[in-house]
Amino acid sequence: MSPVKGDVDEEPDGLTGVELTRARSAELFAVFRDEGAPEASRDAARDALVHLHLPLVEHCARRFRNRGEPLEDLVQVGTIGLIKSVDRFDTDRGVEFSTYATPTIIGEIKRYFRDKGWAIRVPRRLQELRMQIGSASAELTQTLGRSPTPRELAEAIGCSVEEIVEGIESSNAYSTLSLDATDNGEDSTATMLDAIGIDDEGLEHVEIRESIKPLLDRLEPREKKILLLRFFKNMTQSQIAEEIGVSQMHVSRLLNRTLEQLRAAMEEESG
Fold first, then answer.
1. CA within 20 to 30 Å of 96's CA: 17, 111, 146, 182, which one?
2. From the record, what ranges are coiled-coil (predicted)?
3. Per-residue DSSP letters for 4-70?
């Protein structure tokens, strides 16, 4: 009886279904790996191996049910991983084929979900770089106690800063959401636009304020007060003039002179 075309009608005493599958798989791999066997026999053995292990693909695919993709599609994708495993499997490794094939099948299904989730088609290298950035960022955040800079990410991954920036920007193409979508499951007139925050101008200028603090400390008390009233309390020159008891023109001259001093001091420090 041919090891490729023969079917087992009855299970021999003492052998389980798993043991029969292993024995059958070993027979088929022996034919498939036999370079001296006819090409037709080897192709038939390959097809039989794929068919024999389809239940393994279905088992792996069921782990990803209820994620928005039909089970039939997941089985088709997983079968691609199974075929790759059959072609690459080395019987001399002493590893069960199911053990070897399972990670490849699951990896193929996960890759399908990853590619399916991009609203705009992004090159595979950027998709993979995005995953590397996410992993490296989590590790560096734990180590450094803060978010890593693009340069630190580039050094950790082994690429350029420009590639890191490109990878981060590509994340904007992943799983975009309608601005009118809501996630509370209830009818509502509110839209996503209502939930989007605005730029915090105070936070935006924190770095600038911190950098000029030492320069402000060098000013005379009156000049410092004028600056604080003008730029931190948003008072007009007329209001400042009333506050400190001088004319608006004098406030304007003092303000211009103080700003020139600060500008010169900053240029000198940066130089």
1. 111
2. none
3. TT----SPPTT--HHHHHHHHHHHHHHHHT-TTS-HHHHHHHHHHHHHHTHHHHHHHHHTTTTSSS-
Residue in 131, 101, 92 with CA at minimum distance from that of residue 113: 131
Identify the CA nearest to 89 among candidates 80, 101, 103, 102: 101
Report d(CA 252, CA 223) in Å as an integer: 11
* The two three-digit tokens of residue 19, written as one number: 């043991």
Per residue in 43-84, pLDDT tens? 999 999 999 999 999 999 998 887 777 888 889 999 999 999
176-184: long-range contacts (C-beta < 8 A, 24 or more apart)? 176/119, 176/120
Task: Please tell me the pTM assigned to this model.
Answer: 0.42
d(CA 195, CA 179): 10
| Rounded-to-integer distance, Cα 38 and Cα 60, Å | 33
CA distance 135 to 71: 29
